[in-house]
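[#protein-structures] MJ: dropping Acyl-CoA thioesterase here for a structure pass
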Amino acid sequence: MKQAINDKEMHKEHKEEIFNVLKNEPYAQFLGIELLEIGEGTASAEVEVQNHMLNSHGTVHGAVIFAIADYVFAAACNSYGKTSVGLSTTVHFMAAGYKGATLRAEAKEEKKNHRTSWYKINIMSDNELVATMEALAYRKNHYFVPVEES
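AK: finished. structure tokens for Acyl-CoA thioesterase:
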């Protein structure tokens, strides 16, 4: 009988490798988003708001806010080394961010089972809550770090 892989042990054993895979995500790098840390089902990242990230009103474009939220969601749901993909997200925009501000996003796992996991994400702009995201991920069978199954 095949024994289940322990997510917490996978995270502890492969944390550095998982972090390195996730910090090198091409789109996040293109935007200048920096992954700060990952934990078991958690992640945080920051980006400094540049001119090209603004909308026609001079505030942070919603797509940039979504991008950093989606990035920490992806990092949190992949923090166990198991390939996970987003199924759905809901974003609530609450305040504007401005050029020169630092956007910081933090994701926290609310619950997970074998196939799905749920997250809450807060996006702050210089310590003001600008948006929240609720997100659902699908957990595939594939691991992107070495796995020894017994």
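MJ: nice. The helical segments are 7-23, 26-31, 62-77.
AK: one more thing. The first helix runs from residue 7 to 23.
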